[in-house]
Amino acid sequence: MDTTNKYFLPVSVVLAGLFIAGAVMWNGSRPVTPGPDGAASIDISDVNIEGEPFIGQPNAPLTLAFWSDFQCPFCKAFEVGGVPGLNIVPALPDIIKNYVDTGKAKVVFKDVVFLTPRAGPDSLTAALYSRSVWKLYPDKYFEWRTAMFTAQDEEGGGFGNADSIDKLNASIAGIDAAKVAVDVTANAELYTQAANANTAEAQKLGIGSTPSVVIGTQILVGALPFLPTQGVDGNFRDVIESELK
Predict the structure, then answer these.
(1) How far is C-alpha 200 from the geometric centre of its chain's CA atoms?
(2) Which of 46, 71, 77, 125 is the most exposed place for a label (fewest CB within 10 A)?
C-alpha cells in the first residue's frame, strides 16, 4: 500500500507556510539537513529544556524535545491523530508506552508560535495557557495538552482563543479554569517572552518545521510513524533505539 500521500494536505488548506512531508515549514526557515535515515544531526545539549513541560522521569537516560504549535495539524496528527484528510497513526502514544512509561526517555514539550500572527493570535494564546497549566497543575499538564490537541480545529478556526480554552479547562477535573485565566493575564508578558524565546531558539537551531523532535543527537521532522513504514523516510523507534545504545 502506498503510504506516501497521507503525509500531505491539499494546497488549499495552507495558511501561513508550506506543508512538507508530515510537517509545516515556515518561510524564511533554515531547515536542518536530513541524513539517509531521515534524521539530521543536532544535539539535545543545545536545547534549553530548563523549566519546559515534560513527561517521564526527570533523570531518564534519553531526552526527546518536541517542537510544536498548538495550531499545527501535523502536531495533532503526531500527538493524538484524528486530523481530517490525514490517515496518520499518532506516534507519541507508542513513544510513551515503550520509552517514557518504562523510564528510558522523557519528552520535553517546546511550544512555538510559528502560526502567530499570520493565522491569528491563537498559537500564542494556547502557548500562554500551556505555560500556566504547567506552572499551576503540572500533574494535569499532559491530560490538558491531549485535550487541547483533540479539540483542535482548522488553523485559525476559532478553537485556541482564550474563551474556548477557558471552557476546555473548566471541563477537566482538577483544573481551576478561573485560576488559570487570572494567571495567564497576570503573567502574559513573561509567558509571551518564553514562547517567543522557544521560537527564536528553534530558528537558531535550524528547526523550521513543526512537528520536529530532537532525539539525543538526531532530529526527526514531521508526523513520522513510530515503526518503519514503506515509502516513509524515518521512524521514531529506530532513532530512539540508536540513541539508547
Answers:
(1) 16
(2) 46
CATH class of 5-244: alpha beta
Place of cell 500556566: 132
How high is the pLDDT of residue 18?
41
The single-letter code of the amino acid at 29 is S
Question: Contact 56/98 with Cβ under 8 angstroms?
Answer: no
Q: What is the DSSP letter of 59?
A: T
Average pLDDT, the chain: 85
Q: Is the dihedral of CA 203, 208, 210, 216 positive or negative?
A: negative
- Reading the block at residue 14, the C-alpha cell is 495552507
Q: What are the pLDDT digits (tens) for 14-41?
A: 333 344 446 655 433 333 444 434 455 6
Q: What is the DSSP letter of 1?
A: -
Contact criterion met (CB below 8 Å) for 195 and 111: yes
From edge to edge, which strands make up the β-sheet containing 23-25? Answer: 18-20, 23-25, 209-210
Q: Spell out the domain ranges in the chain.
A: 5-244
